[in-house]
UniProtKB/TrEMBL annotation:
Name of the molecule in the record: Uncharacterized protein
UniProt superkingdom: Bacteria
Annotated stretches, region: Disordered: 1-20, 129-152
Bias kind Pro residues: ranges: 133-152
Length: 152
């Protein structure tokens, strides 16, 4: 039997037409304006059902976009640092030099020779050691993953 009561409406916001873009715009770990990086060690330690779903999604993704000329991506773990806090090697990495100006103050210059006006408040991206473990130490199991959010 069918009920004569009306079907209840969904009370939340309308579904997005760009759900992945919306999620990635939230600046989560491993995401910037151009890329979303998934540490392989974490992906391979996800629960088996997650790995199976991820494998299927990636297979479909590669099937759909495999015709493109993919470059080889080199991912370098990095973090933001204040320019004035960098050592000589880090300054060289970001393409900056430091010299003593006419007034005796330190001047920071970029590759193009332009002066950085406020190095104490200028942030740059510098490589760092990878904080994500590659494998669980001594055969220990990784901590359990949080359950996936449910979409209704």
């Amino acid at each position: 039997m069918f009920t004569p009561d009306p079907i209840p409406r969904h009370t939340g916001p309308p579904a997005s037409s760009t759900p992945l873009g919306d999620y990635l715009a939230g600046e989560g770990p491993g995401v910037d304006g151009g890329y979303a990086v998934l540490p392989r060690s974490l992906a391979e330690n996800m629960p088996l059902p997650w790995q199976q779903q991820m494998r299927n999604l990636l297979a479909e993704f590669h099937q759909a976009y495999g015709y493109l000329q993919w470059p080889v991506y080199r991912v370098v773990p990095s973090r933001y640092e204040w320019l004035a806090d960098l050592d000589e090697d880090q300054l060289a990495e970001v393409g900056c030099t430091i010299e003593v100006g006419d007034g005796g103050d330190l001047e920071y210059r970029l590759r193009d020779g332009s002066r950085v006006p406020d190095p104490e408040n200028h942030r740059v991206l510098v490589s760092c050691l990878d904080p994500i473990p590659r494998n669980p130490p001594d055969g220990q199991q990784p901590p359990p993953a949080a359950p996936a959010p449910q979409q209704w």
